[in-house]
Every structure is written in C-alpha cells, then in structure tokens.
User: Fold this.
Amino acid sequence: MSLLVTGIGELVTNDPATGTLHDAALVADGERIAWIGPAAQAPAADDRLDVQGRAVIPGFVDSHAHPVFAGDRAAEFAARMAGEPYTGGGIRTTVAATRAAGDDDLRSGIRRLLTEMRRQGTTTVEMKSGYGLTVADEVRSLRLAAEVTPETTFLGAHVVPAEYAGRPDDYVALVSGPMLEAVTPYARWVDVFCERGAFDGDQARAILTAGAKAGLGLRIHANQLGAGPGVRLAVELGAASADHCTHLSDADVDALAGSDTVATLLPGAEFSTRSPYPDARRLLDAGVTVALATDCNPGSSYTTSMPFCIALAVRDMRMTPAEAVWAATAGGARALRRDDVGVLRVGARADLVVLDAPSHLHLAYRPGVPLISTVLHDGVPQ
Assistant:
C-alpha cells in the first residue's frame, strides 16, 4: 500500500539536495519513501493523509538509551535535588533489581518505554544492556532488546559489579572474553563507561579492541564526570560515537573535528543531575558532527522525550532550533552509521513525524507541549 502525505506546510528533509520545502507532499510506498515534491504535483496513491499545513520532520533517532532495566530510583533523584552529587554509584541498585526481574517484567518495561518514545516521535532507538553484568543477564538483556530494535549495544562494561570489588581486571577479562562471546549474536555495538569509578583508558581500550575483533561497532561513554581519555580513545579506535562529552579539552575538540566520530550529547543527564551542560556551540563551530539523544535510564536521565532534549539543547547548549532538530534526527543516524533514517528522501525509510505546529521551531519554542500529531514508522501510522 502506498500513502500520500499532503498539505505539508513545512517539510524538513535533512537532504542537502532538497532542503526544506513548503506546500509539499511525499509518498510512502510500503516501508520506503517513493516521491517528494510540491503538493500540487503529487502522484496518486492508495491512501491519503492531509496534514492541513502542519510541519513534517524525519522521525527522531535516539542513539543512546538504557531502557532494559527493572526498579526505580526516584529517591536517588530526590536526594540529588536536595544537594547530593551524582557519582554513578546508583547503577548497582538497578543491577540488583534487573537481575531479580523475570523476562516478562523486563520485556514489559522495554515495550512501555518504547511506546512512550514512539508517541513522542522516536522511530529509531538504540538500546544498551549494562544492568545485568553477568554473562546470563547480559545475554538476556540484549536478547530482549533485539526483539524491538536492530540497534543493540553490549554495555557489560558499565560498572564493576559488587562481586568483583577489588578485582576489576578479572571483570575486564570476563567482559572482553566469555561475556563478549556469549552476547555477540544479539549485539551490533559494544560500549564502555570510561570514567572515574568505572573503567580507565587501558581497560576501555582492551574491551573495545576485543569487541572490534568480534565484529561489533564501537561506542563509548566519555568525559561525562570529568576530563579523561575517553574522547580521544574513541577517535583513535574509530568509534562511531563518543557520548556525553561534557568536559572537553581543546585537544579533545580538535580530535573530534578531524574524525568521523560523532559527539552525542545527552542534556537530559545534565538536567537530572544538575551538572554543567556540554558546550554544543563550541563543538559545532569547530566542525564536529553532533547528535542528541535521551540517555533514557532510571538513574540520571529518566526521560524518553527527544522534544524535551531539543528544547534543552537550544536553551542551555547554544544550539539553534534547526541544529537541534538535525542533531536529533540526522545526527543520531550518523551516530549509528545509518543513511536510511534521520532523513526524508527517495529510498529512505518512511519514518516521519507530523507536528501539531506550522514549523520545527515550535519544538523549542513551546517546550513541554505535546506537539507530536502523527508518527509514521516504516510508512505505517502509529
């Protein structure tokens, strides 16, 4: 079945050859876009959706999320709001709850969060493991994530679990050996939390190198809590994305600017931890490719809303609305090394969002307002 989407007041394509169109239309033929152009020239289709002057943008690409978990850390959030600093230590609380949960409970949680994401315009999402930290629990986490997305990331190197306290090198050997071997059938990516209190540069290098040898793409949590080796390690190893990027030296920025590694910024984490926001303007002005993502997780960024992250990026990270929308769509696609999402052009996936607004500007202009009118995923209204 083909679908004509017409009456588009503003069509943000993210395609340099097309740009932003007005009074536009597009045709989705099954899962792919078959035609884009002026509404007056639109071809016939099996069905028709008239959006009556609303804006249409590509579906959001959330390239960093942790939705495979059990439990709740609302009390930890309240403590931070009362003045306690964020250290990352609460991850172990979620590990205990996740290990104790059954498959059906975890599956239900994943699907609940995915439904929230879809309602807010997200059509592509990356999902990480990292709250199991045993071979069996990491395999389970990735197996369940793979039921709903092809973008699955092995994050066995999230923190060193309690049973390996005082023996971090033994845990690194497990992650880069038997655990990696067991999860590889369910994972596309491997990630490491390269921060103080988690994994240092040498440990991160060992895990990422092993992951690359196993055929997985590379991602890294880098420079969130302080300066460190994560960003330059990401560039050196050719990682697709260095995520957080809050504390950057000039050398870090230069390394990113001279590479294909995307700087994925996660303003929901700064909002929820009262930490300094990354300086997106500095990165953009240096020529770095920037993505925005939710970092959806129960401890430091319990949001599924890409529109919320766009508003934060514009207000607190010095991005223009157009830059923020691009980062939340095409930027996320770059971070996943995808060219079939985050863009509206012939042959791309028919993933798009109809805004209940005349322009993409309203995503930042009207923060907190539910502006997602209709979501098409693979050409099907959700």
Remarks:
- Residues 60-335 form a domain with the TIM Barrel fold (CATH 3.20.20.140).
- The mean pLDDT is 97.
- The CA atoms of residues 70 and 236 lie 35 Å apart.
- DSSP finds 13 helices and 17 strands in the chain.
